[in-house]
Design goal:
By secondary structure, the chain is an all-alpha fold. The chain has 16 helices and no strands. The longest helix has 40 residues. This is MFS family permease.
Length: 406
């Protein structure tokens, strides 16, 4: 692909802003949990493999994303987003009660992480399939860039420090605040005009046949296929280290619990920058060059962290470079999918892609926990970085031959 947009556009329809606001408050709650769940796990065990298991449980629902894609293509996507947020609010409310009573245990965190992750899979699939309906395909880079930047600000930059601070103040408090954020998101989604189910032709078919249709489309179309496989392999490598980051921060960097939340927030700065500038950068350089640049930068940044990051400042500086590249990659990959996939297949193909992409994360977390237990907390960064270099070398020839297919 040589160009995905001739000019960045920021004039988005009013209905999009309700979706944007719902994402803002919902991801703020998600961001608090990013810090709170690992911190609570660390308070219950020091075993890196058990702590990595919480990350595995939270990302495991992506392995079920194919089923979620069928649901998204069958039913009203606005209604699905609403129910996903209601489920998250109820699950977190139950956990808040349990912790308030002083009954929290490690296995409960596994269940909480899995339930939150499962609802997030449905919400994300429905939301991403809903964006082209709200903004049209000519505004996808602008809309996706704004959503990704917002997610970085609320989920990665503001949420973790806030969650860690509330956790230090009173352990149940961030869970109760989460209930409020998910509830507010439901109210904002309700303000979006209903558009009904996706238009589909022909008689309803079985779930396996519909899943197969989405998978076949992904396999036969080279651009989405290359982006999906590359991102999945990259996520495996990256999650090896991220799954035990809470221990790396305390044992290697010497940070406190509240410092861990601030670290997560500082690490999100690059993602915010990349999301805000993504539409212009893609318009200037084209999707192909952006994708190649991101795949080159990411493994080098990961290796540099493993080799030299022994204080928070160095880690944040190197991770900022990494997260800018990841943010740009995400905008390119998401916009390509939304532009090329027919609307009636958008939920299934997007979910198939995200299953392969994010389904690699629990596997990476398991591998990272094992590597950290056997070889220390620095090893997952080095091993993940070396594997990521290999992924880049294998993917670059395909990306170089990436012609315009839009």
């Amino acid at each position: 692909m040589t160009q995905t947009a001739t000019r960045p556009s920021t004039r988005l329809p009013g209905a999009f802003h309700n979706l944007w606001a719902a994402n803002l408050v919902s991801t703020l709650g998600d961001g608090m949990l990013l810090a709170v769940i690992p911190l609570m796990a660390k308070s219950l065990t020091a075993d890196p493999q058990l702590i990595a298991g919480v990350a595995t449980a939270g990302s495991a629902p992506w392995l079920l994303a194919l089923l979620g894609g069928v649901v998204v293509d069958r039913y009203d996507r606005r209604l699905l987003m609403t129910w996903a947020q209601i489920i998250q609010a109820l699950v977190v409310a139950v956990m808040a009660v349990v912790i308030t009573l002083g009954l929290g245990q490690l296995w409960m965190l596994y269940l909480l992480a899995f339930a939150i992750g499962a609802a997030e899979v449905l919400f994300t699939a429905a939301s991403q399939a809903f964006v082209p309906t709200l903004v049209g395909r000519e505004h996808l880079e602008a809309a996706n860039g704004r959503l990704i930047a917002t997610q970085q600000v609320s989920k990665q930059f503001l949420g973790p420090p806030l969650g860690a601070a509330l956790f230090a103040f009173a352990m149940p408090f961030p869970f109760w605040v989460n209930v409020a954020t998910f509830t507010l998101s439901v109210l904002l989604i309700s303000r979006i005009r209903r558009v009904g189910r996706p238009v589909r032709g022909g008689a309803p078919r079985s779930i396996p046949s519909e899943i197969g249709e989405g998978l076949r489309w992904l396999v036969r179309n080279r651009l989405p296929r290359v982006l999906t496989l590359s991102a999945g392999a990259g996520n495996f490598c990256e999650y090896m280290a991220l799954s035990v980051l809470v221990l790396f921060a305390s044992d290697v960097l010497g940070m406190s619990d509240s410092g861990f939340g601030l670290l997560l927030g500082a690490m999100a700065v690059g993602g915010v920058i990349g999301g805000l500038l993504s539409a212009r950068i893609v318009a200037w350089f084209g999707g192909r060059l952006v994708a190649i640049g991101a795949m080159t930068v990411c493994p080098l940044a990961w290796l540099a962290i493993g080799l030299w990051a022994r204080n928070p400042v160095t880690l944040v500086a190197l991770f900022t470079v990494f997260s800018i590249a990841i943010s740009l990659w995400s905008v390119v990959a998401l916009s390509v999918r939304q532009r090329l996939i027919p609307d009636e297949l958008l939920g299934r193909v997007t979910s198939a892609s995200r299953m392969l992409t994010f389904g690699a994360m629990p596997l990476g977390a398991l591998a990272g926990g094992f590597v950290a237990r056997q070889f220390g907390l620095i090893a997952p960064w080095i091993v993940g970085g070396l594997l990521s270099v290999a992924v880049t070398v294998l993917a670059l020839p395909a990306l170089v031959r990436w012609d315009e297919e839009e």
